[in-house]
Amino acid sequence: MKIAVLDNVRGGSYEQGVRRAEEKYNIEVKYLTPSVTQLKGSIEEVIPAWQRDTIKELLEEGIKGIALPLLHPQPLISIIKEAVSRGVAVISYDIDGPETERYFYVGTNNYLAGKIAGNNMTSLIGFKGEVVIDSISLTSYSCKGRIEGFKEAVGKYQNVKIVDIVSAQEDISKMFTLPSETISTYKNLSGIFATTGLNAGSNAEVVKRQSLQDKIKIVCFDLNSGIAQFMEEGIIDVAIVQRPYDMGYRVVEFLYRIIKFGLDEVLKSLPKSKIIDTGVEVVTKETLASYKKSQEVLGIKI
After folding, report:
1. Which domain holds residue 187?
2. Distance between CA 139 and CA 298 in Å, rounded?
3. Do 115 and 210 fall within a single domain?
């Protein structure tokens, strides 16, 4: 029995979860990531192209199950439908794309996580002030869910105003210049919500450089070594941390169960939404050390 897990980037803690489940369920897993060469160009184009070509190769190999994040699902609709029609179990993780007719999604319920981020932001700024949302993408399901959840939470407080939603639109170079423009434009800014770990650091760098950490609070998603350093310095205040290890483990577990027991049997235990929420953890400077220790137990170093 052989399955494949596709990851958009090299490294990360998804693979630790995948390998732990691979060992437990005695199932062979191909863990695939694009090369540096394959990532050259627009993310919107290169990621779906790599995923599409990889799925074609896997179908020829007779793979039984595939899990992948659907950053840009539209170009993958036909190949995923082909895979499903050929009896291959396909599920999404981390980033969803239900229009592809994947079986179901394993990962963060981004709308609920966005609400958690919004509640933390309003508390940090004392329930009043101007806030900007900075999102690397305005089209991915994960970012859209986080934005909508954040807006709902913040919208309950009449003295908190979201003055803008800015985006680098997946342009990495713009991601590094946008925070300076934002802070220059909004002189009375009290908070910045960065929807991904990718742009959390660039916002924190500008706040640190301009010594604005006492004035501007930062809430972000994800936690890496750079974000942890900014948190220890008091620049980033709250990180809404997903559970990639759990995502990796559970996609292997679910693919194993589908192949062994059948899709209908597995679906009986799932919510009607076809979203398996792996949850988030709220990490602050005060809880960072204990969080790091909890990850070290899993073999993850931050």
Report:
1. 110-242
2. 32
3. yes
CB 92 within 8 A of CB 69: yes
Residue whose tokens read 């954040």: 150
CATH at 198: 3.40.50.2300
Tell me the pTM. Answer: 0.92
pLDDT for residue 10 is more than 80 = no
pLDDT at residue 11 in the model? 59
Express each pLDDT in 29-70 by its tens digit: 999 999 877 777 777 789 999 999 999 999 999 999 999 999
Q: Is 220 helix (H, G, I), strand (E, B) or coil?
A: strand
Q: Residue 90 to residues 75, 83, 100, 164: CA-CA distances in angstroms?
A: 15, 8, 10, 37
Question: What is the C-alpha to C-alpha distance for residues 52 and 28, in angstroms, rounded to an integer?
Answer: 21
Alpha carbons 180 and 127: distance in angstroms, whole number: 25
